[in-house]
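Contributing new records

If you add data, match the layout below exactly. Sequence lines come first and carry their own label; structure lines follow with theirs. Keep one chain per record. Anything else will be rejected by the validation script.
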Amino acid sequence: MSRTTASVVVIGAGPYGLSTAAHLKGRGLNVRVFGSPMASWDRNMPKGMLLKSPPSASMLSAPDPGFTLEGYCRHAGEPVLGGHDTVPVELFVRYGRWFAEQLVPEVEDVRVLGVARQSDGFRVKLSSGEEVRVPAVVVASGMDGFAHVPGALAPLVADGLVSHASHHRDLGVFAGREVVVAGSGQSAQESAALLHEAGAEVRLLARTTELVFGAGPTPPPHWQPDTPLGRSWGLYGVVHHAAAFRCLPREVRLKLVRRALGPFGAWWLKPRLDGVVPTLLGRRITGARACGDGIELTTRDVRGRAHILRTGHVLAATGYRVRLDAVDFLDPALRARLARTAGYPRLDAGFGSSVPGLYFTGIQAAATFGPLMRFTCGTAFAAPRLAAALAAREGEGR
């Protein structure tokens, strides 16, 4: 069955998809949204995780006031967080689902199987069997398909000896087992802390020679400006001038996306790791093989010396890498038409790609608009801007 039922389809119901849909609806556009609200946050983040961002930066964007994290807490009778309070992931999921119920209740929990270009727009094939013809599509699928496992470890994923940090909802399954966490950023540091607290025998292995933690709260005065991502002039530019980021040279943009805001852990992780979790720093993994019912790692230190390390499991907390070819619901012919910046889609000022009518938001927009797109607070910039571009496009088509 094929029918035209909307002027825009939004693929994804995480913070960026829900925020975009709310702003599109606020402009009177007929929108269909496909996905399960906050599913990735609920299924791919470990229980007990705390968001790196403070409450003021842990919110979705709405066209009307009252739909912040604070607004949800007041509505639900939960304690209101402020300042440098930590935000549990479970609270953030509840907030996101409340946001969806209030502003985007028509989210359809079906999977998009394919998006193909046709003469008058796009054909969207759904797991329900329906095919939707629509003039415009917004891809807001988050980090799905982008989990990165280093090449030396990747062959052992199928054997269950290696997994990515996003593959586990409950780290308690590792209680009593030996686990090596590979990585040095927030995900690696927090995974190591949670594993230790769940009863695992954990070690943290990282290429960096020291673990870096963000600065804790300090009393004013401050000589650098505060932002939702931290206190610095550089972050001020990233947050408040994201529109200008796309004017920077390509290599500068890519360098900033890779290096800004990482890898480091939140200040509140330091007491949970220092002197608590053994660390093997300055080590690069050069090889891995199955050994009995565990895994044997070969590592090389900063002096070039080789070391052998045995463990029961390796948890790769090694981040995400955006690759358009991993967005498998996009038809190969459609993907081939997309202009790219490294693995990212090349976007215009309104988040539109080189294929007219196809838009990308969230982490997939980071190479155009900067590191802000890696964080939930980036919805405040992206959602209204994208909605304005689509509203203008629909107006021109009438």
